[in-house]
Amino acid sequence: MRAVCAHRHQRSTVPGVGVRAVTPEGAGRARCKLRAISVTQTHPSSSGPVQFPCGQCGSRLVYAPGTSSLRCPSCGSERAIPETPATIEELDLETALAGRLDANATAETLVVKCASCGAESTLVSNAEAGRCPFCATPFVAMALSKRALKPHWLLPFKLGLEEARRRFRDWVAGLWFAPNRLRQDARAGAIDGVYIPHWTFDSEATSHYTGQRGDDYTETETYTEMENGQSVTRTRSVTRTRWSPASGTVFNRFDDVLVVASRSLPAAQADALPPWDLPRLVPYRDEFLSGFRAEGYQVGLPEGFAKAKTIMEADIRQAVCGDIGGDHQKIESLQTRHDKTTFKHILLPIWISSYRHGDRTYRFLVNARTGEVQGERPWSWIKIALAAVAAVIVIVVVVSVLQAVNR
Ligand SMILES: [Zn+2]
Ligand SMILES: [Zn+2]
Description:
Number of domains: 2
Bound molecules: zinc ion
Distance between the termini: 85 Å
Number of helices: 7
Number of strands: 17
């Protein structure tokens, strides 16, 4: 079997990053023109043009979190990012799914694909390029060029690196039964600023349903029981439900239903990242990405919309139950038509630190808008065992003291 590679081979076109070809494992078998590359850090000015050069010293300007400016890491000079009106508000889903979008809506971008976890992200020259931000393995990555939908909007970083680091340290310090190694790793570990791709969907949903409405009523019931050796007849009231068929139509309008388009974050962590202040989205500009990584979307538009529909269905079911009324509801059939469905491809900012402990990777995420922390953590079984032994000793001592006092 011969695999045909659709990716275009790319030499390094990323400013400030030296790309050195090495022989990938199994490259011959796949006949893929991709090369495994190891990404090495070079000084921004030493290779290729700098994307946003500093007017004072020529270094690369990077986006300064919490501001609307680029800042020079070498000399501190600043440049305001021009405000742009949105060129694309929302895109029509039907047009996009039929592949009839304007050529302007997509772009060719160079991404690196982690050979270990499969995460695809853009390269940055001044963040740590030596390891994957998602799995903490040294970056032996595939450079590939992908045609993908351009992001339309983003939320810029609000929390800076130092604040993210502080939150990480505080979080680790607050952990009970954490291995000591973790504290050392937390101090030494790198934190990367990454924009995570998302889809948002707007839709007008019309749903026809059939089902049952249950109304409760009370009934008086007679029963007998034995009292002093005699059988006595008594009454009591019981609640029963009367079911009757129900059907109808409900209408729901959805705005900005958010779906994560990344597969690099565990679902539980990605789902816990909201809330996001989506009303503050700004039109996409390359400047906001300077100094940060942006992950490429791996959940495509059709799959993204399928996920959005399941999220919407929970609301629709609730609306149907409200429409049926009564004390109980059963939905037997539900058919929903989505009209005027539009979508946006947006980027949302997180700080991520992946740390390896034992043979597992643990991730720590900070929502770079709210500062909310999501972390996976290892447990120190030795500390837990010692604590359990200590607890048993305390109990034994307390019990023996009480017995001595009572004697
Ligand atoms: Zn400068
Ligand atoms: Zn990885």
